[in-house]
Amino acid sequence: MSNNSTFSSPAFAKRLARRHAAERRFKLIGLGAIVLSLAFLALLLFIMMHSGLGGLNWNFLSGSDSTDPHVAGIWSAAKGSILTMLVTLLLSFPMGVLAAIYLEEFAPRSRWIELVEVSINNLAAVPSIIFGLLGLAVFINTLNLPRSSPLVGGLTLALMTMPVIVISGRNAIKAVPPSIRDAALAVGASKVQAVFHHVLPLALPGILTGTIIGMARALGETAPLLMIGMRAFIVTPPGGITDPSSVLPMQIFLWSDEIDKAFVQNTSAAIIVLLVFLLVMNGLAIYLRNKFEVRW
Amino acid sequence: MTETKLTARNVDVYYGAKKAIDNVSIDIDNGIVTAFIGPSGCGKSTFLRSLNRMNDTIAGARVTGEILLDGEDIYASSMDPVALRARVGMVFQKPNPFPKSIYENVAYGPRIHGLANSRAEMDAVIESSLTKAGLWDEVKDRLSDAGTALSGGQQQRLCIARAIAVSPEVILMDEPCSALDPIATAKIEELIDELKENYAIVIVTHSMQQAARVSQRTAFFHLGNLVEYGETSEIFTNPREEKTKDYITGRYG
To answer: Measured between CB atoms, does A183 come within 8 Å of chain B?
Structure first.
């Protein structure tokens, strides 16, 4: 039987039509999935904009929390978020990256290291409220650090963010071709030189992407901060990382709980501020990634 | 006229429990090209990588026996593998320039070893290394271009320049032409022929024609054993061992 007759038979034409139909169906379902999820996001954004934009003015952006919804502003919570994120970033980024480098490049293959790896992977999946309890027990009750402060909030969120950075960092380091390490070692670079001169710069875009994902998650986190008392009513912006403070998602949570209807606008406006905050962070991540990305 | 540069005595190489190289003894001379040939998986690359301790980076790899560089045991605790690799350079199968400029690719080795004390000295090292690697005329006007933007053959010559730049005594080449077209291969072979004046060169190759063209001595490996080692002309025209004969006449491999 020649190929020609096989591919021109009616049975083959029918099969072919079925295959094309299956392909069209899949494309349609995929498109539907995207449209559905984007539609919900658009709806959410529309509702937020509709009820919140009216409340976005300079007084709101520069003010602090108040019992009067028309006086209440977001700045104290925003500043609290900025300080908390700074503490989180300064702790979790270097620790996470160094841990990732050690585990990926230097750690000897042993039971102990495998145990550490499994623990870190599990740590990334631990519910955030558990980290809050840990923060309360260790940082506040044992180390006597100031309650409700960005310092303790940042420490707690750093514990939560570090495993995410370790995991993404290890994947980024793993993705650097071994031939680059060979090349550096073969001209007489030490292991540390090969890693810091060649592997790390190439892995940096991936590490940064993971870091921003972890930081974005930390920025939106409310539960662990409830445990360490960052839900206090704060009327003055924190002066430093040891002053009592609130954070953006906490402020949203507190306002959404108010009985006064006027706080609905404040809640929506605060959500817009939080979203803009996230957009800026993501934009920064994309900028940094493109800046450090090496074309091969 | 020639002197022994590298000596291996009863060398075994293991990957975990698996023995990849079995009791190999060989003398490698200065000023000539030594080729390692043999079918895939015969251990020739493994043995090559044990000559500059690149196998140290592979988990579970273990070398027993003695490998001497100018009479000095390279696996002795007094031998620093970092210093050893500055003396025994390596060029790999796939060109692997750093994703940096041509200049930086060559400058990296001299810089970490402190071989150039000024910009002018470094420039001189770069020029002489690229010239020796036969690449200078092609790249002298674009040293700041990415090394990875060069053609495959140029990339491999850049890697050779990078190895030469730290003034090694031995250059190990692991199938340096297997990813290159015939014209680029011819250029590299010409280059190897010129370089042998100043270095001991060891080349692993799959191509028997290449071994015949560039080397003065040839070692035939099979299943982790060194089957035969001698003058290249002898190996190819009058092999002593039946296995060597079968391999070079294309009966297997």
So the answer is: yes
Q: What ipTM describes this predicted complex? A: 0.90
Whether pTM exceeds 0.90: no
Rounded alpha-carbon distances, angstroms, from residue A274 to A221, B129, B250: 12, 56, 71
B-chain residue closest to A189, CA distance: B82
Residue with tokens 């031995």: B170
Contact residues on chain B for A186, CB-CB shorter than 8 A:
52, 54, 85, 89-92, 163
CB–CB contact B92 A183 (8 Å) = yes
Separation of first and last alpha carbons in chain B: 34
Portion 234-293 of A in contact with B at CB < 8 A: none
- A18-63 pLDDT, tens digit per residue, is 999 999 999 999 999 999 999 999 999 999 888 888 888 888 888 8
Collapsed DSSP state (helix, strand, coil) of residue B75? coil
H helical segments located in A102-190: 111-123, 128-135, 150-174, 178-186
Beta bridge partners of B8: B26, B67
Q: What is the per-residue pLDDT across A114-163, written as a single tens digit (0 to 9) for each?
A: 999 899 999 988 999 999 999 999 999 999 899 889 999 999 999 999 99
Per-residue pLDDT reduced to its tens digit, A237-273 = 888 888 888 899 998 898 888 888 788 888 999 999 9
Residue numbers of A between 6 and 65 with CB closer than 8 Å to B = none
DSSP conformational letter for A293? P
